[in-house]
Design brief:
With 760 residues, the chain is mainly beta. Helices cover 10% and strands 30% of the residues. It is built from 8 helices and 34 strands. The chain has a 9-stranded mixed β-sheet. Strands 4-3-12-17-16 form a 5-stranded antiparallel β-sheet, covered by helices on one side. The longest helix has 18 residues, at 498-515. The radius of gyration is 28 Å and the shape is globular. It starts with a helix and ends with a strand.
């Protein structure tokens, strides 16, 4: 959730206008945001399209603006022969939350708590809280099996209580995915109180069905075409569904951005190279960076065979009719079943069980075949995409999954565990490959682009032959089979290798789950803890940075401090825009001893915004490519960047007026000031007014035109600058009008009166 006065005010007005009943359908969400992958977990168990109270989530890499990878999530519970609390028996019944059904009469939240192994870091910039997402820790539990857990419980109309836990890690080998565990228990509780409305009822032929309306990253979606923001041109694919032997050991659905033929005329759009500036990316981010290389996916780690059989049957050709998930498919997101109004049997038969004819597969199967991506490009040569990925459907297609059928008696439960992740080339590769593509001129589509993917200092070449058999099994960023260690490919061929990055990430989640003893123990080396507080202050001649070390955790060897300028996701520093050999990203400005608690940055210049983050670095680890007993390459672990990242700018302040000046020399800038911005705190500055050339210790009183005191500022930092966000002491936005500022020098008692105008 992005937080600003505008958004908080809008939310409040929405509640007042909609009324209590409608407002209850706006379920809130918790953020799990400690790594490079940030996710939201809505208290209802899903997120319908109209829920404005929860941000989209699935952000990767999370420090980039508009990096969300999904639009909506649906959760359906289908059962047969069900008797509702009023005594009516339904031959088929499907309780639905999303994608367009709010679910206020279906899901009844009990809790949605954020648990943490460590205390949260309080980040302040010039004394004001600085944060991205609202993620307030509810409880510190030092022996958690993850660094943070979102623990959500909600009852459902059919009497199933869902206990969902999402696990996130700081460890850099495991901070780019979440493990999600679901326990579905037949409690008979079908509402939000503790009474049992449906005792002694066995739920028959029950399915737990989810619709994943993923999309490419939001910045790529809007940069590509209007419809892709809803997933219009999404390609949906599957591995490990039992239709063939796959050289992987899991079942997963995944998605990437296909092509819009209407956008292909100007240049090849696969991977969405940023050729022109647009509002969805950082200013100046039009150097060709590939914004759409990410692949989004979800794999099954475990699914009970039945309430009495905890074994998991994975999908293979020999088990295709008995394995879990029971159905794997895709759904047009504008079809009737995505909304209210269809018969219950249609939701069950044509939605959950898919509309595919099982007779097409010998022995029957609810795993849709061919896969959607293969129907769009039957050749399987996805890097030479030629066909409209939307098939003319404005809402695009979403991946669908169902576990079941289960017969669940009173008190019985089934357990399902999955991994969700986003994988891609990474920012450095996206930028360097995309920049080379943009420079390619008329030959850009066929140009071979070199990139040292494994960082060994040489470029390996060969024949590119994309197939499912080419898997990056050792995690070095390159194909391993058939002798193809390719580091020289066309832009499109580079894009489709992102699938292997996703598969590597999903496999690491599976390995971590196995090492955790079913999520009961912390399974990997723990990173040093982040500081308890991180304070950044703009002074007249420097930026002063202070922090409070943590009280426990693994030993740290140093603190590492990073800085960027202009905007907080500015990745074009150190000459990166002209010299591709220089790394992009935040500039490393200091290595400090483990006992350090402060740093003075004297490099900043006046008139520029700066952003910082600080990490604690631990001891080198044993070399473990899987990241379980050590880290890939034996690198030291670091505390979470997300916990100290600043999202408000800091600037050098002007010095207080000198001995020859007076308080009357103070200036108010701008004047008049326009109060019209509705931008969020994260990526644009709030509406504000600046008081310049003021005493280092003074009081500023703001009065309305009729003499009412509406705000008072105590300025005591010794500088000549003070910023005010144009809100009253009651946190109300200023209306249009003339205002009077009285500036009082606390040392001399001298005061000055100035007027300024606000225009809304």
């Amino acid at each position: 959730m992005r937080v600003s006065c505008f958004h908080l005010l809008t939310a409040a007005l929405t509640v007042l206008l909609l009324g209590v009943g409608e407002a209850q359908a706006q379920f809130t969400a918790q953020w799990l945001d400690i790594g490079t992958f940030h996710g939201t977990y809505t208290e209802s168990g899903a997120q319908h399209e109209g829920n404005s109270s929860a941000a989209d989530g699935m952000e990767w890499p999370a420090f980039l603006r508009n990096s969300s990878h999904f639009r909506a999530k649906a959760f359906w519970l289908g059962t047969r022969g069900w008797t509702d609390p009023n005594g009516q028996t339904w031959p088929y019944f499907v309780a639905r939350i999303g994608p367009r059904t709010a679910g206020a009469d279906v899901s009844f939240p009990v809790q949605n708590r954020l648990l943490s192994r460590t205390e949260d870091t309080i980040v302040n910039v010039d004394g004001l809280l600085s944060f991205d997402n609202v993620a307030v820790v509810d409880e510190i539990i030092p022996n958690l099996p993850a660094d943070r857990i979102v623990h959500n419980i909600h009852n459902t109309l059919i009497g199933i209580t869902v206990d969902r836990r999402a696990y996130g890690y700081v460890n850099q080998a495991h901070d780019d995915y979440h493990i999600i565990e679901y326990v579905y228990t037949n409690t008979g509780n079908s509402d939000d109180d503790e009474d049992i409305e449906l005792p002694n009822q066995t739920l028959k032929d029950t399915y737990f069905f989810r619709i994943h309306r993923w999309r490419g990253s939001e910045q790529a979606a809007w940069s590509m075409s209007f419809g892709q923001a809803w997933g219009k041109f999404s390609m949906v694919d599957v591995v490990g569904d039992g239709h063939a032997e796959y050289p992987i050991s899991f079942t997963a659905q995944y998605l990437w951005i296909g092509i819009d033929p209407e956008q292909q005329a100007q240049w090849d759009r696969l991977g969405v190279p940023l050729i022109q500036d647009n509002q969805w990316v950082a200013p100046g981010d039009s150097l060709g960076r590939l914004a759409g290389t990410s692949y989004i996916g979800r794999t099954t780690i475990h699914a009970d065979n039945s309430p009495s059989d905890r074994s998991y049957i994975r999908c293979k050709p020999a088990t295709i009719t008995t394995c879990q998930p029971h159905t794997l498919g895709f759904m047009d997101q504008d079809e009737a079943l995505t909304s209210d109004g269809s018969p219950q049997q249609d939701y069950y038969d044509w939605g959950i069980l898919t509309r595919e004819n099982p007779d097409r597969i010998p022995g029957g199967s609810s795993h849709m075949w061919p896969h959607y991506a293969d129907r769009i490009e039957p050749s399987g040569i996805f890097w030479e995409a030629k066909n409209d990925a939307s098939t003319g459907k404005q809402g695009g297609h979403a991946a669908t999954t169902a576990y079941g059928p289960y017969n669940i008696g009173p008190g019985e439960h089934v357990r399902v565990v999955v991994v969700e992740a986003v994988g891609g080339l990474g920012f450095d590769a996206d930028f360097k490959i995309g920049r080379s593509f943009k420079r390619g001129g008329i030959n850009r589509d066929s140009r071979l682009i070199s990139y040292d993917a494994n960082g060994d200092g040489s470029i390996q070449t060969g024949m590119f032959n994309y197939s499912i058999n080419q898997i990056d099994t050792d995690g070095d960023g390159m194909f391993d089979d058939f002798g193809h260690g390719l580091e020289e490919m066309t832009k499109n061929q580079w894009v489709v290798t992102s699938r292997d990055s996703l598969f590597k990430t999903l496999q690491r989640g599976i390995n971590l789950y196995a090492a955790s003893n079913n999520m009961s123990t912390y399974p990997v080396p723990e990173a040093p803890h982040a500081p308890l507080s991180f304070d950044v202050w703009g002074r007249p001649d420097k930026v002063e940075i202070l922090w409070t070390p943590p009280t426990g955790g693994p030993a740290r060897q140093s603190w590492e401090l990073y800085r960027s300028e202009r905007f907080e996701d500015n990745l074009y520093v150190n000459g990166c825009t002209t010299d591709l050999s220089i790394p992009c990203g935040y500039e490393h400005i200091a290595s400090l001893p483990a006992n350090a608690t402060s740093y003075e940055d004297t490099a900043p210049v006046r008139g520029t915004d700066y952003y910082y983050y600080l990490q604690a670095v631990g001891d080198p680890q044993p070399n473990d490519p899987d990241g379980i007993t050590g880290t890939p390459g034996g690198h030291a672990l670091r505390s979470s960047r997300s916990l100290t990242q600043t999202y408000q700018p800091v600037n050098l302040k002007r010095p207080a007026y000198g001995p020859t000046g007076t308080v009357a020399d103070a200036r108010i800038v701008p004047n008049p000031v326009n109060l019209g911005s509705d931008e969020s705190v994260r990526f644009a500055q709030e509406d504000r007014v600046a008081f310049f050339n003021i005493p280092g210790d003074c009081t500023i009183k703001i009065f309305s035109e009729i003499g009412e005191l509406i705000h008072q500022i105590e300025h005591t930092d010794g500088s000549g600058d003070e910023l005010w966000n144009l809100t009253t002491k009651a946190r109300q936005l200023l209306v249009s009008g003339i205002y009077i500022a009285v500036i009082i020098d606390n040392a001399t008692g001298e005061q000055a009166i100035q007027k300024f105008v606000v225009i809304r």
